[in-house]
Amino acid sequence: MTGENRIFLDVRQSASGVSWEHRLTERQDMTALAIAQGFGVPDIVARVLAGRGVTAEQTERFLDPTIRDLLPDPASLTDMGKAAARIAEAIVTRERVGIFGDYDVDGAASSALLKRFLTHFSVPAEIYIPDRIFEGYGPNPEAMRDLVSRGATLIVTVDCGTNSAVSIDAAKAAGADVVVLDHHQLGGPLPAAEAVVNPNREDDLSGQGHLCAAGVVFLALVQTARILRGRLPDAAPPDLLGLLDLVALATVCDVVPLTGVNRAFVVKGLQMARQQRNEGLAALARVSRIGEPVNTFHLAYLIGPRINAGGRIGDAALGSRLLATDDPVEARTIAETLDRLNQERQQMELEMLAVARVEADAELAGGNGPAIVVTASSNWHPGIVGLLASRLKDHARRPAFAIAFNANGVGTGSGRSVSGFDLGRLVREAAIAGLIVKGGGHGMAAGITVERAKLGALRAFFEERAAADVFRLQGEESLAIDGALAAEGATLGLLDALEKAGPFGAGHVAPVFALPRHRLADARPVGTNHI
Q: Could you give the C-alpha distances from 220 to 71, 179, 258, in angstroms and in order?
């Protein structure tokens, strides 16, 4: 939300077709003044803080967030007591534990968190990450039974499991208990697990729905450690704060709001990451050629994509293995493999994007074009369609889908939306209308499975349901400006001061400044993707 629709520098339509607006309201202007005077921060930094809802009373705590102050009581999450008790029991009795994770960064980090905790207590644990293409997202009955056949008496699902009732029933029938640690929206009845810890359950009143899965797992480990202090009083306590580098990685890469305890997770987790105590993260930093202290940019755009590359086009388990290992040789080998896979992914993405943009531009050529861009091909890798949809959304400034069809005419698609348009709801409506095999998602992203024969009808359905809202949002598009800046004021000192107002990301957006005394004199491409 911008500052009461106050136009900034009288720019009502920029070169990109959007208006410039003050980010701050008049009340926040006064708050910024109070912050600058009370805490000795530069005026521009005070404006950044005030424009993101920080009050003068909150400033000191905001600039130095601590886990102690911001960590919620883990027991406030529904079923947390049951989950922690069952995990503690497995540790005390040395049961074999199966960990079923997702194939993205959050899933890999969550799996590694739990395995590291169990390994500290010498508990045998095995991570299972499904193949994105052949198994799909979440637990499946065959994999759950396989874990049980290898001795698991407890299976903990992380970053998945909330909507896996059938698979959890299969695990129970095979003889294992199941605990779910997740954060995804519930799409049906709760599974009959020993515990389902998910702050986005309708009956969860903890107010922690902004956590990623790794955040939920961390809270579960805190609660489990409390129980173990009584049951294993002679055991060395685990270094939970030392695991925050993994929580920070997942929090940034899963694009959850960087507010409250999430911000503390990232601030303190980055401090841990800079110590390079995790062999896997250190190896990834080296292959990513990060020659400075790790920051959120490095996590989101260098380290995260390499972990995801395994799940997209290679071995989905590589990321979790890397983050869980203490062997520097194994870490280097896996990191180099992920780096190679990421290079292959980048090349695939470039080739797919070239084709998709031609198709999208053809659709956009007539008038306003479609409200939602839908591109499809039989030559695309299904593990990359999400990245492709994101690129198309930015290019077309409207929601976009990219769909990869297989030889049987069934397409796996991914969609990305613009702020203000609920793409997940649209996909659920399409499923109810019988236009897709299955689908789901949330406001900003969705996934679908669709038959080629129904693609035309799906496009028409999207247009009918979305056109009014999408074109209205385009007409209201604006750019929020934090303040004006002179070039001589853009110093390294200002950057250092702005870092204290960060880290920036989802829910705590990076500042935008205008330089009104200056005009663009030259622009030239640098490399392939930068200007």
A: 12, 11, 20
d(CA 310, CA 292): 25
Contacts of 6 by beta carbon, 8 Å cutoff, 6+ apart = 21, 22, 26
CA distance to 71, 413, 449, 452, per residue, from 427 (Å): 35, 11, 10, 16
Determine which of 402-406, 431-435, 480-484, 527-531 has the lowest per-residue pLDDT on average: 527-531
Rounded distance between C-alpha atoms, residue 417 and residue 445, angstroms: 6
Q: Which residue has the tokens 């190679």?
A: 340
Least confident residue range of 195-199, 321-325, 335-339, 479-483: 479-483
Q: E-assigned strands of 417-470?
A: 438-441, 445-451
Listed residue (474, 303, 287) closest to 396, CA to CA: 474
Q: What's this model's pTM, rounded to 2 decimal places?
A: 0.92
Answer for the pair 161, 191: CB distance below 8 angstroms, yes or no.
Answer: yes
Say which residues have a Cβ less than 8 Å from residue 117's Cβ, sequence separation at least 6: 221, 224, 238, 243
Q: Residue 286, SS3?
A: helix
CA 300, CA 410: separation in Å to the nearest integer? Answer: 32
Burial class (CB in 10 A: 0-12, 13-18, 19+), 126: middle
Q: Which residue has the tokens 């250190």?
A: 282
Query: Would you call 57 helix, strand, or coil by DSSP?
Result: coil
**Range 284-289 contact pairs with CB under 8 angstroms and sequence separation of 24 or more:** 284/322, 284/335, 284/338, 286/332, 286/335, 287/335, 287/336, 287/338, 287/339, 288/339
In 3D space, the residue among 212, 209, 246 whose CA is nearest the CA of residue 115 turns out to be 246
Confidence (pLDDT) at 495: 87
Q: Which domains are present in the chain?
A: 19-64+479-510 (no CATH), 70-340 (3.90.1640.30), 366-476 (3.10.310.30)
Closest CA to 41 of 494, 485, 488: 494
Query: Residues 448, 438: contact at Cβ < 8 Å?
Result: yes
